[in-house]
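A.,

Following up on our hallway conversation. Structure tokens first:
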């Protein structure tokens, strides 16, 4: 995890990100980008200029969210007020079941069967066995499946109808980014969501006709500023919205909760998957997550 802090006088803003090797990032490379930008920040670099100084990714996310937090503290207002948003409401987050054998995943599902939305990590061969075991163990939960780019077009064609019968509400990134032209013209009985294929507004047009939903993650968009802009553009283009996360603390989830308002799917369970969250953190009541208090962020 990477935390950026920007201070002015007695006020300090913080933002957290999770550099992701899938996108060629590490904590070291992201921290180096922020160190290079430190003199410009000291000279007054703002969020608007930041969008042109760093590419979308974890480094920009941490700094963008820190600048939002600092701006709110200096103005003695909440971030959603500064952004022209309505006060955020509690959200129901998905809870992730890690990839394992059908038997192990069924045990995990049974332990989480009271949660209304489960996100199931899949890998290709054997996935229907996993899903059937999970459905039997958690009959009342809505299910999202996340293939993490692991399926072939044959997997998708063979699985989609069965997954619809099992009550799956969303299939997330079934095919590899760059190989998803195979989705064009595929009439899926379950909505398909772009994750690795969707980063910011620049790539939105190429998703049309392939995906019904886009997964907005602040570590991909490069912060809340672009996340809100991507959400507006995606909604205008007719996409459904999912807001997701990497595995981070409550500080990383707090700004994402603003983007998650009104989203069809929210997946901000990062703190629930950690051995220990930062304090103060977000308040979780089962799968219900409350908006952040000012002591945490924003």
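Then the amino acids I'd put at each of the 298 positions:
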């Amino acid at each position: 995890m990477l935390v950026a802090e920007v201070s002015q006088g007695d006020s300090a803003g913080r933002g957290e990100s999770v550099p992701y090797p899938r996108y060629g990032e590490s904590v070291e490379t992201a921290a180096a980008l922020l160190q290079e930008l430190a003199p410009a920040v000291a000279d007054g670099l703002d969020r608007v200029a930041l969008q042109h100084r760093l590419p979308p990714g974890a480094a920009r996310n941490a700094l963008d969210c820190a600048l939002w937090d600092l701006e709110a503290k200096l103005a003695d207002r909440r971030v959603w007020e500064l952004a022209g948003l309505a006060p955020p409401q509690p959200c129901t987050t998905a809870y992730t079941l890690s990839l394992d054998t059908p038997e192990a995943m069924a045990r995990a599902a049974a332990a989480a069967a009271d949660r209304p939305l489960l996100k199931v990590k899949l890998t290709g061969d054997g996935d229907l066995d996993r899903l059937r075991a999970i459905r039997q163990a958690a009959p009342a939960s809505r299910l999202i499946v996340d293939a993490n780019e692991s399926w072939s077009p044959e997997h998708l064609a063979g699985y989609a109808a069965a997954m619809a019968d099992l009550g799956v509400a969303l299939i997330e990134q079934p095919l590899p980014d760059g190989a998803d032209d195979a989705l064009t013209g595929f009439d899926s009985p379950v909505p398909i969501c772009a994750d690795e294929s969707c980063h910011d507004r620049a790539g939105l047009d190429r998703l049309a006709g392939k995906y019904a939903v886009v997964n907005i993650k602040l570590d991909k968009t490069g912060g809340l500023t672009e996340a809100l802009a991507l959400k507006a553009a995606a909604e205008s283009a007719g996409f459904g919205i999912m807001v997701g996360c990497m595995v981070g603390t409550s500080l990383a989830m707090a700004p994402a909760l603003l983007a998650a308002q009104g989203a069809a799917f929210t997946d901000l369970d990062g703190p629930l998957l950690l051995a220990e969250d930062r304090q103060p953190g977000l308040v979780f009541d089962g799968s219900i997550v409350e908006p952040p208090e000012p002591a945490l962020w924003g």
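DSSP finds ten helices and 13 strands in the chain. Curious whether your intuition agrees with the design.

B.
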